[in-house]
Amino acid sequence: MTSxxxxxxxxxxxxxxxxxxRRNVERLxxxxxxxxxxxxxxxxxxEIAQRAGxxxxxxxxxxxxxxxxxxxxxxxxxGEILATADRALADPDPWHGFTDFAxxxxxxxxxxxxxxxxxxxxGIPGLDRLLAEIRTRLRQLVEAAQSAGRMxxxxxxxxxxxxxxxxxxxxxxxxxxxxxxxxxRNLRIVLAGLEGQGRSD
Length: 201
Hints:
This is TetR/AcrR family transcriptional regulator. The protein is mainly alpha-helical.
């Protein structure tokens, strides 16, 4: 997949961008990625520009719009998750492949507010194809693990999608504060419940 930086630079009619232009786009992409993680999809142009250390004028000279930048960055992030899923599908041990994917997927949802919102259907334009591909990969991973007798057969791949989405946790509940790795503890509990020997009960 073409990088977010290269995709944003292709609008110059095939011309090779100046080094300073590339550096500014690289800064804006990195800033957008960190802002998406911390703030979410409502992050403003001003916030991204400040994080990148550039003015709003530079932002709009290099980027068509805030929405375009967020879409391209989220496409890159979801593309990385798809690549993880493809590696998991190639694993000769279907359960190991599934658990590796599950850990990467849940970590992303826990650590990036924007990615979590996009995966939850926040309505970011242009992501439908990638979300459909992630659904397909998840179904394939679940079916492979079930066929190998490593995952319970009394659940559907859709059940697994909701379980993985639910593993990410809020920072607090009933007066308790979550540890930084609470999502990992939650995931281990969920995986223990999913693992089985082809049971139908």
